[in-house]
């Protein structure tokens, strides 16, 4: 498994870093997966190349494991699928650090966990089947005994490697998102000596000097300077019998 000192999500570092091939190839999970790939190759290669022989009294090729063709077919099927799955999960392991979504990483780890657990059990069934059928094979003359023993042995080794892969996937699934290493925001302690909490303390405000425009008020108390016409009393007409000469 990948051991990182920073923040991790499901056993892989957070997205954004580059891919280090040498670091990836030295991971225990990668090494065990490559071993599982080799063991699966040996199992189905031994059976497909030397697992069928022609009995003396039959022209049809039979499986070397007690002439049980089902045993050979089962081992070939399990081996081929395991071989292809190892390649697929190797690519997925290299791609997981580039996944920015934690939910996608969770699905990838769950797929690895489910498949590895299932194939650990299927390899155990394969080992038991091949071992029992080889033990029942009494006439081994003319049979490739080395190929048969290698098939049984590497079936047993595959149980161990796929079991280890199941354990690694389970650890990554239980780890999940390592929240303890993620950067989190902690609110500063409140200062009881200030009038405001530290989060809502008002910032210093320096207003700019604004000089309002002053307007002279209209002088309502000043009298009207426009000259007014002087008042001249109108002359009164003389009374009857009273004559007054005009003044010059």
From TrEMBL:
The chain crosses the membrane at residues 31-53, 73-92, 113-135, 147-170. InterPro entries: Marvel (IPR008253), Synaptogyrin (IPR016579). Belongs to the synaptogyrin family. Keywords: Membrane, Transmembrane, Transmembrane helix. The keyword NADP does not apply. Residues 195-229 have a biased composition (Low complexity). GO terms for cellular component: neuromuscular junction; synaptic vesicle membrane. Signal peptide: none annotated. Residues 182-248 are annotated as: Disordered. It is found in: Membrane. The lineage of its organism: Eukaryota, Metazoa, Chordata, Craniata, Vertebrata. This is Synaptogyrin. It holds the Pfam family MARVEL. It is a multi-pass membrane protein. Residues 24-174 form the MARVEL domain.
């Amino acid at each position: 498994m990948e051991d990182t000192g920073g923040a991790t999500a499901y056993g892989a570092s957070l997205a954004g870093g580059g891919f280090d091939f040498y670091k990836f190839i030295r991971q225990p999970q990668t090494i065990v997966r490559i071993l599982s790939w080799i063991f699966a190759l040996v199992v189905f290669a031994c059976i497909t190349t030397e697992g069928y022989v022609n009995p003396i009294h039959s022209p049809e090729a039979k499986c070397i494991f007690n002439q049980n063709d089902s045993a050979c077919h089962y081992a070939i099927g399990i081996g081929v699928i395991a071989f292809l799955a190892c390649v697929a999960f190797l690519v997925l392991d290299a791609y997981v650090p580039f996944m920015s979504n934690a939910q996608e990483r969770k699905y990838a780890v769950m797929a690895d966990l489910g498949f590895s657990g299932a194939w650990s059990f299927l390899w155990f069934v394969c080992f038991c089947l091949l071992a029992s059928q080889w033990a029942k094979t009494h006439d081994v003359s003319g049979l490739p005994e080395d190929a048969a023993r290698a098939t049984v042995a590497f079936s047993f080794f595959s149980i161990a490697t796929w079991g280890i892969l199941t354990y690694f996937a389970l650890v990554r699934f239980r780890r999940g998102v390592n929240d303890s290493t993620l950067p989190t925001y902690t609110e500063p302690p409140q200062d009881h000596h200030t009038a405001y909490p530290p989060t809502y303390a008002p910032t210093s405000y320096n207003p700019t000097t604004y000089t309002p425009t002053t307007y002279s008020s209209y002088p309502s108390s000043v009298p009207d300077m426009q000259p007014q016409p002087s008042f001249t009393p109108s002359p009164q007409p003389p009374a009857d019998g009273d004559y007054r000469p005009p003044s010059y």
